[in-house]
Each structure stands twice: as C-alpha cells, then as structure tokens.
Design goal:
The protein has 457 residues and is α/β, with parallel strands linked by helices. The chain is built from 16 helices and 15 strands. It folds into 3 domains: 135 residues, no CATH class; 252 residues, 3-Layer(aba) Sandwich (Rossmann fold); 60 residues, Orthogonal Bundle (Histone, subunit A), CATH 1.10.20. The strands form 3 sheets. The protein has an 8-stranded mixed beta sheet with strand order 8-9-10-7-11-6-14-15, with helices on both faces. Strands 1, 2, 3, 4 and 5 form a 5-stranded mixed beta sheet that branches. A two-stranded antiparallel sheet has the order 12-13. Helix 6 crosses helix 7 and helix 14 runs antiparallel to helix 15. It starts with a helix and ends with a helix.
Length: 457
C-alpha cells in the first residue's frame, strides 16, 4: 500500500498536467451543454458524469466574482452574434453560448469557471439567463515553510522549534554558511555532522556529499558546509541543491523549512526564478576591478537604484558582478529575475524585532563571536585562502582581515563589524518588506497558529 507521502509526491508530479486536464474538461462540459435542454437560471452543479473524481465543486459565493470574467466575455460574444445574421438564416441567433476561463489561485489551485448564457424563447435581447459552473482543481503542490528576517532576529531557534513541532527538516538559506570552516563569523548553529545511511542505489556523490547534514538539537539541517571558502557557489547552485533536498525531505514524509536571511536565495526557490548565467567579460572585469568601491557603487546606484538598496556596498566582488551584468546586458541586475511556474504551496513567516532590541542583539552577538575566537578563525582562513577570496569579503571577515593586516586596531575593527551588521540588517528588511506574502510575527506562538491553519488548508 502506498504511503501518504508517496501519494503526495505522485500528486505533485502530476500537477504540471492539471492545466491541460482542466482545459480539456472545460471544453467537454461546454460541448455537452450545447445539446442540453433549457436550463434553469442559477449556478449549475457538476454531475458525476461531467466531473472527474479529482475535481472539487465549490458553490461558495466568494468564488462567483472570480468566474464573472468568463460570463463577461460570453455575453459580449452573444450580443455580437445576435447582431450578425448567421449563414442561411438571417433571423437565427445562437440560443446558447458557453465559454470557459481558467486561472491560478494564490493557494496554487486552478480555478475553472464555465459560463453559459441562454436566450429566452421569445428571443428578447434583454432576456438572458446567466449560468455559472465553477470548480477548483487542486494542484496538490508540495508544501514549503519559509522563515525569514534580519540577522540576529531568532530565525534559527524558531526553525528548530517548528521542525520539532511539525516533523520538519531545516535548509539554511544563508549565503555564507555554505562555506566550510567559516563557523563563528557566520553564526552557524552548533551541532554534529551526521552521514545518513543510504540505499544501495546511491551514487558516490550522494553518499559523500548530499547525505551529510548537521544535526542540531535533534533536527536535521541542510545547506551548511557545502563548499570550501575558495570555491564558487551561486544562487543557481543553491536553488538546484535546495530543490533536490526538498524532494528527499518530502519523500521522507517530512516538512522542508527554509530558514535564512539571504533574500535572493529565498526568492529563487519560492518564486522558482529562472536564473540565467551571464558570462563574465575579462576586459570589462579588469576595468571594474581596478576602480575603487565607492566609484563602482555610485555607478551601480545610477544604473540600478533598486538593486543598490539591498546590495552589500562594501562587498566589492558583488558590486563588480552586479555592475558587470548590468552593463553587459543593458538591463538592471535586479530586474533580471524571471519567475517560473509555481512549484510549491508556500507559507512565508517573517520575524519582526524592534530596532533597538535588534541592534542590541547584534552588538551582543558580535562580542560573543570575538570571545569565541573569531580573530583566530579569520587568521586561519587568511593563511589558507587569503583575504581577497570572495567568501572572505563577508561581514566579520573583511574587518578582522584589516586588523590582521595592521590597518586598524582590533577595537575599531569590532565596532566596524557591529556597524556593518546593523546596515546589513536594514538592507535585509528593505528586501523582505517588499514581499507582501510574508506574515510578520513577534512571538513564536503566532507562527504555530499560522502553520496549523496552513497545513489544514
């Protein structure tokens, strides 16, 4: 007997065909109505012979307005036809016209409406009976829970609590926690590396790479320690990894929980961004690399004001790349994000923390990092990879690198880490506030209620 999780996976695999199925079904209903007797005004209920078992009929009033688009188009067609004599009989007008309309609901279901308009026997243009058939075709999209918020807002703790409550596994959406050895400065959760036992069909890559996860307080965490600090890891890499990992989590009957503050990475998964890689131009890259960061940022802000609001202006490599793509394509970097078909039934929860409290948490976190050995961690990574490596330009690492290079006292470097982290938190909130789908909460209990309602929907 198939398991519930197996059935959900099969349903999700079929969801991409539902639009075609709904179109064919709607056409069939329209064709059947063409031979039906005169109908009583009102909402028609689908008969079993017309409704496949996977279609749910809803006669709730709140669905009726959404169906009126079909009726408006149908009425217009009928009125136009009534003024145009049909071939062979100038006085013969269509007695019945039916049109269907299909759209996607915010919950990821297909809403199908079929409108039938009939004339009265007296052929009075004012005597038009309107009939609506409407139903929902559930796409059974796999569920994805997302927890976002600024740094130091408590995302990790909430993710663990929810994973325990609802049987979930966490996937980190932090663009710096993917690097091995960068532990203290990225605030990685403390846990133990676990290699999950796999079946005999697993490949060597799966055995030694994908199946390694971090166990934190009994909760599996993925997306951590994936590459070395001198290896490239893009948002496209993260999207591919995360989608594969979510398939595995769903297959286990668990709930994937995407937790992190890297806005673009979160959006890439939630909105199924169709990411295109623009090849680097060596000549242009050399020109940009030779310029000062302030000059680069000023040009980028002029060409892409929206992107400049959220980019880390102190991260030269990121600014160079964004400016390079903008100039090569002639289109702002922030606008080169095309959304693909919806893949998941998503609930996004955002952690809101008052500014003063958040800044205090940030200061305390930075001081705790220094006490835990941040300077030694940066020194070790510098000796192995150098401070010019892209990963080492992250907040907390570039400032300590300046101290190790003798460019400023340690106390000043620590204050710079605090200041830059506060600025980063502000950019994060700027990004997330643009997404009206995020449900903002102050207390964990609010999240529990939202999740319970969402899971039962």
């Amino acid at each position: 007997m198939p398991t519930a999780s197996g059935e959900r996976e099969q349903q999700g695999a079929r969801s991409k065909d539902h639009l075609v199925q709904a179109s064919v079904h709607a056409t069939g209903v329209v064709a059947s109505l063409a031979h039906a007797p005169r109908l009583a005004p009102g909402v028609l209920r689908l008969q079993p012979r017309l409704a496949p078992s996977h279609l749910a009929h809803h006669s709730a009033r709140d669905l009726r307005p959404a169906a009126h688009g079909a009726c408006a188009r149908t009425l217009g067609f009928l009125q136009t036809s009534s003024r145009t004599p049909t071939q062979g009989n100038p006085r013969q007008h269509p007695a019945m016209v039916a049109r269907s309309q299909i759209s996607l609901t915010p919950q990821g279901s297909l809403f199908v409406s079929i409108c039938v308009i009939q004339r009265s026997p007296q052929d009075d243009e004012e005597s038009l009976d309107e009939h609506l058939i409407y139903f929902l075709l559930s796409m059974n999209l796999p569920k994805l829970l997302v927890i976002v918020g600024p740094t130091a807002s408590g995302k990790t703790g909430l993710g663990i609590r929810i994973a325990k409550e609802f049987g979930g596994e966490v996937i980190s959406a932090d663009s710096r926690q993917v690097y091995r050895g960068m532990n203290i400065g990225t605030a990685k959760p403390e846990g133990s590396q676990v290699r999950r036992v796999s079946g005999s069909q697993e490949s060597i890559h799966q055995l030694f790479e994908r199946e390694v996860h971090l166990e934190v307080d009994g909760v599996r965490h993925w997306g951590i320690d994936l590459v070395k600090p001198n290896e490239d890891y893009s948002v496209a890499d993260f999207k591919k990894y995360t989608e594969q990992k979510m398939k595995e989590i769903h297959k286990q009957g668990a709930l994937p929980i995407l937790v992190g503050g890297t806005g673009l990475w979160v959006r890439a998964v939630v909105d199924n961004l169709l990411l295109t890689e623009t090849a680097s131009d060596p000549v242009l890259r050399a020109e940009l690399d030779a310029r000062h960061i302030d000059d680069l940022f000023a040009e980028y802000k002029r060409l892409d004001p929206l992107g400049a609001e959220t980019i880390d202006r102190e991260n030269k490599r990121r600014v160079v790349r964004a400016l390079e793509v903008t100039r090569l394509t002639g289109k702002p970097f922030s606008q080169q994000l095309t959304q693909g078909p919806q893949k998941y039934d998503v609930l996004e929860i955002g952690l809101r923390v008052e500014r003063e409290e958040l800044y205090q948490r940030i200061d305390e976190r930075v001081e705790g990092m220094v006490a835990a050995g941040l300077v030694n961690e940066v020194r070790r990574l510098r000796d192995q990879y150098g401070c010019e490596t892209e990963s080492m330009t992250s907040i907390g690492y570039r400032q300590i690198c300046r101290f190790l290079a003798g460019k400023q006292p340690l106390a000043d470097a620590i204050e710079d880490v605090k200041r830059d982290t506060r600025h980063y938190a502000k950019r994060q909130m700027t990004w997330f506030k643009r997404d009206e789908r995020i449900k903002w909460i102050l207390q964990p209990e609010e999240a529990i209620l939202l999740i319970e309602e969402w899971r039962n929907s």
